[in-house]
Design goal:
Blueprint: E1 3-5, H1 16-20, E2 26-28, E3 33-35, H2 45-49, E4 55-57, H3 67-76, H4 85-88, H5 96-100
Antiparallel strand pairs: 1-4, 2-3
């Protein structure tokens, strides 16, 4: 199981979730953050820290945002599992779906 970052994060990257994550599994894109599904330990700290309520447990993602479960996984799949978002650094890109979304 994992947590998922959804649409409310786009262009609202506050960073509170990064500070709250004890395993450093939240990666920084240009317009939003992404949770690595293989690294998340399902602690929920990020969900409570998110000021825009963009993070959900994968079982609780609203139906209209369900595509973000796949978006998080697809976007981070090419990285493998580096084990540390800070060690990897910002990704300087986003999933094509996110890039196509209008800006705030």
């Amino acid at each position: 199981m994992t947590y998922v970052i959804t649409e409310a994060c786009i262009d609202c990257v506050d960073g509170s979730c990064l500070a709250a994550c004890p395993v450093d599994c939240i990666y920084t894109g240009e317009r939003m953050f992404y949770i690595h599904p293989e690294e998340c330990v399902t602690c929920g700290a990020c969900e409570y820290a998110c000021p825009v309520e963009a993070i959900f447990h994968e079982d609780d993602v609203p139906a209209d945002l369900a595509q973000y479960t796949l978006i998080n996984a697809e976007f981070l799949a090419p990285l493998g599992s580096p084990g540390s978002a800070k060690r990897h650094g910002p990704l300087h890109s986003d999933h094509p779906f996110v890039l196509a979304r209008p800006t705030c």
